[in-house]
Amino acid sequence: MKTYLKNSIIYQIFPRNFTKKGNFKGVESKLSYLSDLGVNIIQTTPINLIGKVGRKGTLGSPYAIQDYYQINPEYGDLNDLKHLINAIHKSGMKFVIDIVFNHTSRDSVLLSTHPEWFYKDNNGNFSNKVGNWSDVFDLDYNQPGLIDYLLEVLDYYLSLGIDGFRFDVASLIKKEFFIKLQQTLLVKYPNTILIAESVHQSFITYVRSLGFNALSDSELIECGFDLLYEYNNRECLENYLKTKDNYYLGQYKYGLRYEENANPKETLRIRGLENHDMPRIYNLTHNKNIMDNLLAYSFFLKGPSFIYMGEETKQKNKIELFDKYLVNWHFDKKWFALLKTLISIKKNPTNQQLLISDVDLTKNDYLVIKNIFQDKSNAFGIFNFKNTNKPVTSEFFIDGKYLDLISNKIIEIKNKKIFTKQPLILIKA
Predict the structure, then answer these.
(1) Which of 85, 98, 225, 240 could covalently link to 196 via disulfide, CB atoms 3.0 to 4.6 Å apart?
(2) Which of 1, 196, 221 is nearest to 98 (CA)?
(3) What is the pLDDT of residues 137-184, one digit of tens each?
(4) Do 418 and 397 touch, CB atoms closer than 8 A?
(5) Are 405 and 348 part of one and the same domain?
(6) Distances (CA, A) of 253 to 219, 322, 334, 363, 365
(7) 8 A C-beta contact, residue 20 and residue 26
(8) pTM of the model
(9) Residue 101 and residue 124 in one domain
(10) Domain around 406
(11) CATH code for the domain of 303
């Protein structure tokens, strides 16, 4: 297990929209900023050549890849990529790239060289198994030769110095691929970081209802992934934020406890609210206090914290994949200060010793989490997603004085109660 991941900070970059340059050199120009921010791992959206057939928007989706071995010329060439890899490593960070092995663009080079590697519908036409994805065709992992080819692609990027991969819709890729990945490349490159975009529960149900397979989170863990997405419980949280109905908050709490106890204790999930597919925090709620609580909560649970470019500026704009839409680098100073504080808390070496996060199932408007460490000490996270000032009670609480790591103030719990609108992360004073 890569224990350093527990208190790492992952920062996702879509190079096209990250800087005005929109390329690898633009990313390189921001490395000192990212290092000072506290980032350990940079993860980019796909860096490969984008297809033209069925292209979405003006510039196309980076998830419709024409050639796995060709670099998107928007970003530069192979030498520019090598230079960026070296610069990231010199800055003390690791570099993870997004890999799209469920599908390719509709004008993929593989369609002409290996058409037998693509899924066909009942009429014999190239198609998708699920989803109305008009710019891609799905790969067919039942065909001989495909798995070996894709492993060669990964070997190529690892040989360049890439530190790991985020597998797009990993749940839709055949299990045999990941097993062979463990048996071959992970033996050769044992420090490789593997991130699975594990999908929403409703999507797994949908895929299986069509007669296809979708890997469960437990199967992905068996496949050797270091990190899973936390989409397994995402729908409950979003439903609660939309409706403020405590039924959904209760479901979310039970989901958190289930995910901690239903999987091996070493299991880690990426803790983040935004990414290229998800809405900005601002679009989940326009309330400042709730936004602060959401941000603090995303940094508290066991697992690395995840920042999508622009999240640190309290970005409000829609996330755009198919056209140029630059990050607004005008900072909300209070928000940025909160983020920096949360990063420093997450990166405290004690967080590598975090054993388990437990959730209080009490029916109230708050989320109360207890982090338990190897030395048997505790930290309490108290997060208010309703902006009310009701008393917080918890079976976890022990009366006494505590230090709030966010405000650096002493907070007292009396009669197992506390009042707060602001997020709190408490340790024994």
Answers:
(1) 225
(2) 196
(3) 999 999 999 999 999 999 999 999 999 999 999 999 999 999 999 999
(4) yes
(5) no
(6) 23, 36, 29, 9, 11
(7) yes
(8) 0.97
(9) yes
(10) 360-429
(11) 3.20.20.80
